[in-house]
Design goal:
The protein is of the alpha+beta class. The protein contains two helices and three strands; from the N terminus they run E-H-E-H-E. The protein has a single domain, classed as 2-Layer Sandwich (Ribosomal Protein L30, Chain: A), CATH 3.30.1390. The chain is 32% helix and 27% strand. The radius of gyration is 11 Å and the shape is globular. It starts with a strand and ends with a strand. This is Large ribosomal subunit protein uL30. It holds the Pfam family Ribosomal_L30.
Length: 60
């Protein structure tokens, strides 16, 4: 199964609570922190909600 590397590139300060919860749920804490998540429909949906805050690449 493919994996996605998600990196937080913008701050969550001043963002709606649901976006903050998505960022925290993905395991991202600080700017430039990264996590590797499975590429499935649930993760794609969460990433779509916060696509203006993160950078997404295919994991190696």
């Amino acid at each position: 199964m493919a994996q996605l590397k998600v990196t937080l590139i913008r701050s969550v300060i001043g963002r709606p609570q649901n976006q903050r919860e998505i960022v925290k749920g993905l395991g991202l804490g600080r700017i430039n922190s990264s996590v590797v998540v499975p590429d499935n429909a649930a993760m794609r949906g969460a990433i779509t909600k916060i696509n203006h805050l993160v950078d997404v690449k295919l994991a190696d």
